[in-house]
Structure formats: C-alpha cells, structure tokens
Amino acid sequence: MRLRTAAIGMLTLASLASCGGYGGTGMYGGGGGGGGGGGGYGGGGGGGGGPVGSVTVGAGIQFVSGHNGSSNAAVDTISVGGTATWTWTGSLPHSVQSVGSASFASSGTITGSGTYAVTFTEPGTYQYDCAVHGQLMTGTIVVR
After folding, report:
1. How many Cβ atoms from other residues are within 10 Å of residue 32's Cβ?
2. Distances in Å between the alpha carbon of 79 and those of 92, 119, 124, 142?
3. Which of the chain's ends, N or C, has fewer CB atoms near its CB within 10 Å?
C-alpha cells in the first residue's frame, strides 16, 4: 500500500511540476534568477534558495516556497522529522488547511504577520490550501 501511495504522490508531483500556468519554477532546485531570499511573487518565480520547508503566505493570494520559488502550487520536499514553517506577510486573511488523506494539524486564520510550523514524523505527500481562498492557494509538502 505504501508503494502505491508513493507512486500516486510522485505522479501528482510530476503533474504539478509540469503545469506551466502557475508561475512557479518546479519542485526542486533554485528558481530562474532573481537572487536568493524570499522567493518570487511575479510570473517568473524568484530565486528561492531559502531553507527547505519555508513557505511564505503571500501578500496576495499565493503560497510561495522560500526554497525553490514554486507558487500555487508551492511544492517542497523535506526529510522525515523535518519542519515546514509558513510565514504570513501582507494584510489579507489566510490559513494553512490540510487536505487529503495524509494530514496534519491545520492553522487558524491569521491576518497580518505570523508563523505556523508543523513537524512531519511520517513520510507521505501532504497537500494543503487556504481555508479562505481554497483552490486559488494550494501547496504540497513531500516528506521522505
């Protein structure tokens, strides 16, 4: 069963990585230019280069991986026992809501600045969205 779940997760991630309309830069590696730091909010994605598992809950309607610059869907891979941290910016209300069969504790809705962190102790593909904005804001954490 784990092999089947892993295969489904990898196919899901492959399809997310191949989507061209999100402005992200893919699952792994740095983004396309733009320097290190906070990731890109625009169409081309920023350089990323931040810590694995760092996600910005954007000033607009987006999740952005600080590691690789992918956005909507923000996708990041962490090790078992690793922590994903979401950091709020801007003034819009957002949340991190676990969706799917592999789940984690969801955050409350936060407006303004704040952080939310989850330590993942089991391998799997964990999908999330914003309870306020639904499918307009999505992301995936792959735990290996």
Report:
1. 14
2. 31, 10, 10, 8
3. N
How many residues belong to the chain?
Answer: 144
pLDDT per position in the chain (144 positions), as tens?
444 444 444 334 333 333 333 333 333 333 333 333 333 333 334 456 788 999 999 889 999 999 999 999 999 999 999 999 999 999 999 999 999 999 999 999 999 999 999 999 999 999 999 999 999 999 999 999
Cα separation of 3 and 20, whole Å?
Answer: 28
Contact 86, 55 (CB under 8 A): yes
